[in-house]
Design brief:
The structure holds 2 protein chains of 2 kinds. Chain A is of the alpha/beta class. Chain A has 15 helices and 11 strands. In chain A, strands 1, 4, 5, 6, 7, 8, 9, 10 and 11 form a 9-stranded mixed beta sheet that branches. In chain A, strands 2-3 form a two-stranded antiparallel ribbon. Chain B has a domain of 174 residues. Helices cover 46% and strands 4% of the residues of chain B. Chain B contains 24 helices and 10 strands. In chain B, the strands form 5 sheets. Chain B has a two-stranded antiparallel ribbon. Chain B is globular, with a radius of gyration of 24 Å. Chain B starts with a helix and ends with a strand. The chains are: A alpha/beta, B mainly alpha. The interface between A and B is large, with 86 and 80 residues. Chain A: Pfam families: DUF1501 (PF07394). Chain A: It comes from Aquisalinus luteolus. Chain A: This is DUF1501 domain-containing protein.
């Protein structure tokens, strides 16, 4: 029921079909496609939208990121995580008093499970501020699912009716499921699929799907290619313009050699990337040269590789008019979240880097007047256990995530808050959350905002038909 | 006694080839699979001994200076007020010194492959003496490179750096009162990455399927939770540690010994619950001294290990996308070295390197692999010669992709290595053919340019600790045709096309270097020549 291989419904295909419909007259079964065409055309609207995926590699500890703050739930959290006396620090629990400054004050939405109130990690004042100003939302307990699932179904044996996502709790596979809805080896990400739909709207189709981190399947489409950029911009092959101890003849030979046609597949594919690099470098750096951003990405704690990546993304967005970009999907990442040990030492620094990077990035979009055109969201391998190891937490499943931007219906929570518990039915042991919102639902909500139509969603998210809610409403 | 796979081949360019039949190009190509360089003297050795004889000689070659010995010889165990005991960069220097020096380079080449299977990275290692931690791990891999997989596996589990990296160090038993659970990290990764992998495999490395055609998972979360109990109670071995009070710290500085010695068990912190994993049962109360070797036996004897490990070693040394038959032959060697011994790594290296599929250029356009950046650079440095202005040769962390190699030894970004064995570059002909190409995971618009820029500077000027001498090449710098042929053979195993050689030759001739030119002028030319060769896709794709 879940693994239907949908035929490709690219925008072009839809437009062709629309032509046929127009000729033959709209018939019932085709009405759905026709409706889709109208929405697909949104990609051609003369506006700009960008999605920015902030991937937290290693599996973020959800419970110390979005922390129970009301007394009864805080006490349960502190008990499970080994908190100290008088709600002080201990084990892997954050002291309650430390959470005061980052307490969240939602402006709407239904009451949460057990009347839960939350605060963010004390190192996340920027995100707490954005939430309280309505510019950031929290999606509770989202993770990979094939169908909606209860704990009994999870523990049962009927995998035909209740299939599980592949290789739960495994880093590389769950990274791949989040990015590409399939375990490791998947070659097409959902960001890339959105790129496929949108790339014709961009003057430079190669600048549709961009990673400022390493190669990531998220931004690989069927047609849309991943373009990789460094924090300092596109990298020029220096010796082509400045041969130094070499000379112009050697420069000339270099250009011939590194762009040479070949009958060998590996050589040819290697050269394709080099050629793209050389072709885009001048265009990209030329456009970036005119972007003046006064927002500071300098951060308190020294090196922040995520802030460096988000700065170049902000600058590329600043160059979108010059580059003729209408729809872009970006990928940035930060590693180090696999905090089995020394969680209280390392995790606060990491979420602090996320907070500073996203805070600066949002400010930059405000400065450039595109805050409502850019939506940033977080993703991670998995959430972690609520239970603790010696001084860390283990691989989990669902987790809490952030959506930030001027278009976000912020200041509230989406989805269902899990009980703070190791034995309720919303977790599958040790506080590994059984997701109540699927990655597909979370992602489809972002895809709709980006411009994907109802009819295009099943092609991007093959399992979306298994879920009733394709629009969480957070953007 | 059954024939070992390396002598069973009928292809007479295979392991059975008599030494005199091996051409320069065949020898160079073999050497570039088996070690880092294919210098004239290396080629002569292979031609004299034959492929298998050369491997036997390398297996017998004494180890060179170890990583730990180098650190200590350089004085990196000194307790200084600057707190050098916390500095990780000596670990990078150690790793590069090991890659760039020492004649035991076949051992190091194979150990480098092992370091990408049993991954520990210097990246997150902190606290006292990170260089000693990573050096002791590297030395462990080197020590067991020609030993048995089973011994190596258990040593890896007890190594201090691995203990810190995957959290066996300080892992505590369950505590029902507080809900605390054993850490599952090592239990998971020793199965997923170090022994059996996710799915049941046939001997040829292909997936076994159930009656519905679905892959069969090798273990469940429950297996991990159970196995995790075995890895509780371990911590650094403090027995040989001497502590020294210093005036600038309010705690003593330990000697490096905790990084060198295998971790030890504290039974008070060890879980004595029963363990049920992979269909095996260990009763409650079993002593860890019995349990620990037993679980390593169980994992080692799982039929997946041969194909899972073997295919990755083929990928590291020879080609990205081996045929199932090739994998099956390596599996057979892993399972039985011909004398009834399982896990003999010497037999694995022979099976990988002497296989007819390794020793034959197929002409299939999908064959071969992308050379790893670290190996390109080590090959260059060892081939043209580098020397330090003072002291010993080493290089720095080369992990950045925008201005360095995008890869540095013992600096994997995670336990999943620099690249995944199953990586398929999206939207390429490889993806359409479902062909795995791990090293392509490092190749993108940034790294392709960053690599050439790094070389442009470095292969001419180097750094204070590694100035290129070009000693073997200075005498032929004026004769571009001879020079290009030399580089084609010794760097590219003869795989540069005539057309590319002509382009390089013409460009070099423009420099007008003669026998009377200065060494600096000759080095300008030699660096240009190396740059052009090493940027060429015909070199970069090792066929």
């Amino acid at each position: 029921m879940s693994k239907t291989d949908h035929t490709s419904l690219t925008r072009r295909a839809l437009l062709q079909r629309a032509g046929q419909v127009g000729f033959m007259g709209a018939a019932g079964p085709l009405a759905m496609s026709l409706a889709g065409v109208g929405e697909a055309a949104a990609f051609e609207a003369n506006d700009y939208k960008a999605l920015v995926c902030v991937f937290l590699y290693g599996g973020n500890d959800y419970a110390n990121t979005v922390v129970p703050y009301d007394i009864p739930n805080y006490d349960k959290y502190a008990h499970i995580r080994g908190g100290g006396p008088d709600r002080g620090p201990g084990g892997i629990a954050i002291a309650r008093s430390a959470l005061e400054r980052t307490a969240l004050t939602p402006v709407g939405g239904p009451a949460l499970t057990d009347d839960m109130q939350f605060a963010l990690n004390p190192n996340m004042p920027n995100l707490a501020g954005l939430f309280n100003k309505g510019r950031a939302a929290v999606q509770l307990n989202v993770g990979p699912l094939v169908t909606p699932l209860t704990k009994a179904q999870f523990e049962g044996n009927n995998r035909d009716l209740y299939p599980l996502p592949p290789k739960l709790f495994s880093h590389n596979d769950q990274q791949s499921v989040w990015q590409a809805l399939g375990s490791e080896g998947a070659t097409i990400g959902w960001g890339g699929r959105l790129g496929d739909l949108a790339m014709d709207s961009n003057q430079q189709s190669l600048l549709t799907c961009i990673s400022a981190a390493g190669n990531a399947v998220f931004v690989a489409g069927r047609e849309a290619l991943q373009y990789q950029i460094s924090p300092s911009g596109a990298i020029d092959v220096n010796m082509l313009s400045e041969p130094a101890y070499a000379n112009d003849a050697i420069s000339y030979a270099m250009r011939q050699i590194i762009t040479k046609e070949s009958s060998n597949t590996l050589e040819r594919e290697f050269v394709n990337v080099t050629r793209r690099s050389m072709e885009m470098e001048g265009i990209v750096n030329g456009a970036l040269a005119d972007v003046n951003l006064s927002t500071s990405f300098d951060t308190r704690a020294g090196d922040n590789p995520l802030a460096d990546q988000m700065k170049i993304v902000a600058r590329l967005i600043g160059a979108q008019k010059a580059l003729g970009s209408k729809r872009q999907v970006f990928f940035v990442s930060l590693g180090g979240f696999d905090n089995h040990d020394r969680l209280m030492e390392n995790h606060p620094t990491l979420v602090g880097q996320v907070d500073e990077a996203i805070g600066s990035f949002y400010a930059a979009t405000v400065e450039m007047g595109v805050a409502d055109k850019v939506t940033t969201f977080t993703a991670s391998d998995f959430g972690r256990t609520l239970a603790r190891n010696a001084d860390g937490s283990d691989h989990g499943w669902g987790g809490h995530h952030f959506i930030v931007g001027g278009a976000v219906n912020g200041g509230r929570y989406y989805g269902t808050a899990p009980h703070i518990s190791l034995d309720t039915d919303d977790q599958v042991g040790q506080g590994r959350l059984l997701p109540t919102t699927a990655v597909d639902e979370y992602a489809a909500t972002l895809a709709r905002w980006f411009g994907a139509s109802d009819s295009e969603l099943p092609d991007v998210f093959p399992n979306i038909g298994n879920f009733s809610n394709t629009n969480m409403g957070f953007v | 006694m059954k024939l070992s796979p390396m002598t069973a081949g009928i292809d007479d360019t295979g392991g059975g080839a008599s030494a005199s039949m091996i051409s320069d190009v065949e020898a160079a190509r073999f050497l570039q699979h088996a070690q880092m360089t294919s210098r004239p003297e290396d080629i002569a050795a292979v031609q004299k001994l034959g492929f298998e004889g050369w491997l036997d000689a390398e297996f017998a070659r004494p180890r060179g200076q170890t990583g730990v010995e180098w650190l200590t010889a350089e004085g990196h165990d000194k307790v200084t007020p600057e707190g050098e005991y916390f500095w990780p960069q000596f670990g990078d220097w150690m790793a590069w010194n090991q890659m760039l020096t020492g004649e035991d380079q076949m051992r190091k080449r194979a150990a480098f492959a092992l370091s990408q299977f049993f991954v520990v990275s210097l990246d997150p290692i902190d606290g006292f003496w990170p260089p000693y931690m990573i050096a002791a791990y590297w030395d462990l891999l080197c020590k067991h490179t020609f030993g048995n997989f089973r011994d190596l596996l258990e040593r890896v589990s007890l190594n201090a750096a691995m203990g810190l990296y995957l959290n066996t160090k300080g892992n505590l038993k369950e505590d029902e009162a507080t809900g605390r659970r054993p850490d599952e990290n090592y239990a998971r990764e020793i199965m997923q990455l170090f022994t059996i992998g996710l799915y049941e495999l046939n001997e040829d490395g292909t997936l076994k399927r159930d009656e519905n055609g679905e892959p069969i998972e090798t273990y469940t979360q429950d297996d991990i939770t159970n196995l995790a109990r075995v890895f509780t109670g371990y911590d650094y071995n403090q027995k040989n540690v001497k502590r020294r009070d210093v005036e600038w710290l309010d705690y003593p500085v330990p000697s490096v010994d905790f990084a060198l010695d295998p971790m030890v068990i504290d039974v008070e912190e060890h879980s004595f619950l029963e363990v049920n994993f992979l269909g095996k049962h260990i009763p409650a109360g079993t002593h860890p001294a019995r349990k620990f070797p037993y679980v390593h036996d169980v994992l080692f004897n799982h039929p997946n290990v041969g194909p899972f490990f073997g295919r990755q070693m083929i990928q590291r040394l020879v080609k990205s996308n081996p045929s199932p038959d090739y994998v099956a032959r390596v599996t057979a060697a892993f399972n039985d070295n011909g004398e009834g011994v399982r896990g003999d790594l010497k037999a694995v290296w022979k099976a990988v390197l002497l296989d007819p599929e390794a020793r034959t250029v197929s002409g299939d356009g999908m064959d071969g692999k992308l050379r790893e950046p670290v190996l390109r650079f080590a090959q260059w440095a060892r081939t043209v010669g580098v020397e330090a202005e003072e002291g010993t040769v080493y290089c720095f962390n080369t992990s950045r992709s925008d201005n360095a190699l995008g890869q540095s030894p013992l600096r994997s970004p995670s336990v999943f290595n620099y690249f995944r064995p199953g990586y398929v570059p999206p939207q390429t002909e490889m993806a359409r053919a479902d062909a795995t190409m791990p090293e392509f995971q490092l190749h993108n618009e940034t790294s392709t340019a960053g690599y050439i820029n790094f070389l442009h500077w470095t292969i001419r000027w180097g750094a204070p600790q590694m100035r290129p001498t070009y000693a073997p090449l200075l005498p032929i710098a004026h004769d571009t045709e001879v020079l290009v042929d030399w580089l084609n053979l010794h760097l590219a195993a003869g795989q540069l096309s005539d057309q590319t050689c002509a382009v390089i030759g013409t460009a070099l001739a423009s420099k007008g270097v003669t026998e009377d030119s200065s060494d600096d002028e000759k080095k300008d030319l030699l660096a240009s020549a190396c740059l052009l060769v090493m940027a060429s896709p015909e070199y970069l794709i090792q066929k």
